[in-house]
Amino acid sequence: MQQRRIGDRPVSAIGLGAMPLSTKAERPSREDAVAVVHAALDAGVTLIDTADAYARDEAEFGHNEELVAEALRSYGSAPDVLVATKGGHTRRGTDWALDGSPAHLRRACEASLRRLGVDAIGLYQFHRPDPATPWEESMGALRALADEGLVRMVGVSNADIAQIDLARSIVGEAFVSVQNQFSPGWRFSADELAHCAGHGLAFLPWSPFGGVSAAGSLDSAAPAFAEVADELGDSVYRVTLAWHLAQADVVVPIPGASRVASVVDSAAAADLELTAQQLARLDGS
Fold first, then answer.
1. Greater pLDDT, 100 or 211
2. What own/partner pairs with CB < 8 Å and gap ≥ 24 does 230-233 have?
3. How many CA atoms lie within 13 A of 283 on its CB side?
4. Catalytic residue numbers, as ranges
């Protein structure tokens, strides 16, 4: 599988978004979820994206991080994997809430370290801006975590260009990535993607197929992508991920998967090359 970079770290061009393994109402069994992670590793995936808030509800906060840690421990050999996790989202029952305060981010980071069983988190991302906390304070907290060696690299999620630039100025060299929503039907982060490409920041599109509810109907929601897939005799999902990769060499999509077949199909997209004509059709659709 071809590689890309996040900061100074080479990673697979396609990552694994582990969220569906923990948040879905009808999620896989623990054994099946671990099998999905193992299948991703077997396929050459070396980036796994998780978050402390990826759980069904408040009672099992941290479930996804624990699951990822278990899957990595039980893999046949020690995998060279970059685990990216996030803090700043909280849960109240089944509802999602925000806390970007420095005190919360430190507690969240320390709890993630324990659940993942590591001395330093490879990539720690601020999950979402908190209107109750100035962005500068949240970024200062991330800078402190990096300076103290608790995290190796820092990223932000759901951020606009002004927030990205402020993060760059506050966090410094440790700031390496942006994780925003981006898909054939949701291109509102195109400016942020281009900005990241211009500054050498990794751009990690979340929900690259349009989200859990939309992914199953991608054929009808993105007809141009389905047409190209038919021409190539490939899946619309592989074509969609190949289109993501063609946007810029800083793009590393993180498709979610809850089945082994899905993660294997997604990983194969890293080796699918689209022609300039096909890309023009997809870009214009």
1. 100
2. 231/278, 232/272
3. 12
4. 54
